[in-house]
UniProtKB/TrEMBL annotation:
Membrane-spanning segments: 46-70, 91-112
InterPro entries, A to Z: 5_LipOase_AP (IPR001446), MAPEG (IPR050997), MAPEG-like_dom_sf (IPR023352), Membr-assoc_MAPEG (IPR001129)
Gene: Alox5ap
Higher taxonomy: Eukaryota, Metazoa, Chordata, Craniata, Vertebrata
Predominant cellular place of this UniProt entry's protein: endoplasmic reticulum
Subunit note: Homotrimer. Interacts with LTC4S and ALOX5.
GO biological process, one term: leukotriene biosynthetic process
Protein localization: Endoplasmic reticulum membrane; Nucleus membrane
GO molecular function: enzyme activator activity; glutathione peroxidase activity; glutathione transferase activity; leukotriene-C4 synthase activity
Functional note: Required for leukotriene biosynthesis by ALOX5 (5-lipoxygenase). Anchors ALOX5 to the membrane. Binds arachidonic acid, and could play an essential role in the transfer of arachidonic acid to ALOX5. Binds to MK-886, a compound that blocks the biosynthesis of leukotrienes.
Identification of the protein by name: Arachidonate 5-lipoxygenase-activating protein
Membrane disposition: Multi-pass membrane protein
Stored Gene3D superfamilies: Membrane associated eicosanoid/glutathione metabolism-like domain (1.20.120.550)
Record's keyword terms, sorted: Endoplasmic reticulum, Leukotriene biosynthesis, Membrane, Nucleus, Transmembrane, Transmembrane helix
Length: 138
């Protein structure tokens, strides 16, 4: 909602009726940042749900909240100079990687239980709970 509100505000600020603004670099930055966030959101939801369902809910929820905060930082950084959005982008990539690795660990554990009868769920939950606070390190 925040991103859409910013696009609408910038659109009105440019005194036009449509979203096609020629020569307005501020509108282009806001619109592009909104599109970038919108395109990354389905991937985030997929790995968040997989990590929460297949591995551990608490670290996945923590990583999800961190990702939303980082996307906000990316969006606001994109409104300034383009180099200001780079830390938010890189931090977001790291969180997506963490969620993806949690999903892979959950899938591997499922197949280990299915084929060999070995359950490493407690170990995986312990490791992910220990690693998730490391996401706060920039």
């Amino acid at each position: 909602a925040f991103f859409a509100n910013k696009v609408e505000h910038e659109s009105r600020h440019c005194n036009g009726k449509g979203f096609q603004r020629q020569g307005s670099s501020s509108f282009d930055r806001v619109y592009t940042a909104n599109q970038n966030c919108g395109h990354a959101y389905p991937t985030f939801l997929a790995v968040l749900w997989c990590a929460g369902l297949l591995c551990s809910q608490a670290p996945a929820a923590f990583a999800g909240l961190m990702y939303l905060f980082v996307r906000q930082k990316y969006f606001v950084g994109y409104l300034g100079e383009r180099t200001q959005s780079t830390p938010g982008y890189l931090f977001g990539k790291r969180i997506i990687l963490f969620l993806f690795l949690m999903s892979v660990a959950g899938i591997l554990n499922y197949y280990l239980v299915f084929f060999f009868g070995s359950d490493f769920e407690i170990h995986i939950k312990t490791i992910t709970s220990a690693i998730s606070p490391l996401l706060l390190i920039p």
